[in-house]
# Entry
Amino acid sequence: MKKLGKYFGIGVAILVVLTIVFAILAKVLITPERVRDTLQPLAKKALHREVGLGAVEVSLLSGITLGDLVVAERDGADPFVAAEKVVLRYSLWPLLAGRVVVDEVRLVKPSIRVVRLADGSFNFSDLLGAGPVDPVQETEKSAEPEVTPDGQPLDLLVSEVSIAEGEILFLDHALGTEAPYRHKVSELELRARDISLEDAFPFDLSAVVNGGSLAVLGEANPKALSGSADVKMKGLDLVPFTPYFREALPGKLGSLKVSLDLALEGGAGKVSSSGKVGLDEIDLLLNALPDAPIQGGALHLDYALGVDLNAGRLDLERGVIAFNGVPLEVSGHVEDFLQSPVLALALVLKDLELEPSLSALPPGLVPELGELKPAGSVNARINLAGSTAEPMKLLRDGEIRLENVQASAGGARPALSGVIALEKDSFRSEGLKLVLGENRADIDLNGSNLYGKPIVISSAIRSDRFLIEPLLGTAAAPAAAAKKGGAGDQAPKAGSEVGPLDLPLRAEGTVQIGQTVYKGLAVNNFDMHYLLDKNILTVDRMTGEMAGGTLSETARVDLGQKGLAYTADLAFSGVQADPLVSAFAPKASGMIFGLLNFQTHMSGRGTLPETFKRSISGKGKLTLGDGKLTGAGLVVGLADFLGLPELRELRFSDAKGSFTIKDGRINLSSDFNGREVRLAPSGNVGLDGSLDVVLDGRLSPELTAKLDKAGRTSKFLRDAEGWGQLPLKVTGTMGSPRFTLDTTAAVEQVKEKAREKIEKTIQEKIFKKIDPGAAEGEGVEEPAKQLLEKTFKGLFCN
# Structure
């Protein structure tokens, strides 16, 4: 114990002696005047600037403290660099050899003022004008000790540099504005340790940039020109920097916050990086989509890549881009990315749910979907290859897999499943199926020349049974939404005609359905073939069996004209009238019965009701066998006008007629023959339902007797068979007709009746007395008839 105490005492004595020695040496070798006289000229010579120093303090423990360091601008008017103090720490052991070795420099509260002038140069450009630095020469030079004025060496072998509470102010006069743009880096903390020109040394940095926090932790190797760093940034407001990349922006940027969490490593012309980039609070009005502004959007990137600057190649090992939570995976490589980029990339969508994905898009980017409520999932893989100079030819191959993709319409919710295979400029479907409740349809789709004109598409739809109405409702819903102000300039304005359309498309296809239902009307063996070419849609075959008969139609629509232009030939053969009328004119349901044959040719233009009514023209004919008319409107109105309840149901053995359509009116001429009633309507029926029809009617002798029980009018207006003649005129509308006596026709009937009566009387009373033995129609009777006709014409027509 005594020896241990003795050794401890000796150690303490040595330590005290060394401390005294170091204190004396520091006091002798390092004086404030020597420090000032050494550093100030050196700094002025190196920087070509005036350098000011405040108080200089020397301490054995805290080192050398330089107060109020100021490096002036070239003109000396403003400070370029200012620091509250600079602390230089020195090594103790070299003091024993009479050398002062400064190995640590610490700047406290430095302020750096960086200015870009109007000509693009910086206020420190003169400091960079010495040309490139030779690292070997600089290493040798830095190893040489600086000599103080009294000949004592002062070595600046700095191995550690730190900055505390620093600030950088950047003023930019080169953007052509009256006042310079200002950017500020505050709370700057920097520390570099074990600094060497031969080996790697660590460093760390933190700062606040335009309100966003920045932290960098890395390692630098000056000799190998390499390094690595972990970079973290949060909440950097990018809007103040938009003047520097405004020309590259695809629109107007209102808000954007940037966050980073990256790992960087590089050297010898190669760089690798991985991490996450977040762009949040995005407010961007795109030039290409002015009706679809991005508001409060978020774009996040998770990636890993390598860059070979010498070869001009970028390898993207992993990339996941997510917009508002909707992810897209990207991998592959880009060659010659600095000059003429050539891509080889794979794009992947995994289990993309339509409902949340569509909600994530900017509201104006998709039309108002209303009650469609799309759902289902999509998986896709797209391979791109080729030069970015021809972006439309980048598609190499891929596939889009639809899984129960569905939408609501017309009370139904059809769903589509299957695969769309892509290859260069073509596509084809694989196992594509449309499901609607219990209904199924197989769809074959093929397309080619996707990047040329015209795009060529062929399709074939087959089903044993499928309802058409819900699909028509589905197709109508987006169009209706577009009219309410959906995205794009293709939606027609309210009150405007559709077209002219210029579709770079040639489409051909067939639709074959064993049984379908349209407006409650069953159609069997439906078969249609269509062709769209050069903006002309032609349906050269559409047939089916319906209501006990057949349907046949052909049509042609010119999409290249405003309001479109169309012609159609439609025929029904042997069709029951009631279900047909119920389907297409529900208000007339239960009014018309019988076996209908109908043919018409129509043409016109216009997609607005008023235009359609003015332009539609055509002609046609029809027959109705074993027919019956009943119900409100014309039939009930006629029965009530004549006071004959029996006429509330009119039956006809046959009916036939023809019609023409022009100037918004239907001109008709027809005959209805029945056991109790015969009608020959003729005149005009407006497409708005207005009536101007002459109803030349005949009532059976029994009904005629009931019409005039007194026998006066009925006897006078009977034809040769005893049928009562009814010269009526119908005006008003189909729903509210008005019946009146057609006075012109009545007068003619009276004249004819009188002529027949007088003629018969003269024949009986005069001509038979002249030649009683003459047979009827012989001898003088024929000249007498001619004489009578001339006499009656003069009597009734003058």
Remarks:
- The two ends are 166 Å apart (CA to CA).
- DSSP finds twelve helices and 37 strands in the chain.
- The longest strand covers residues 100-116.
- Residues 753-798 form one domain.
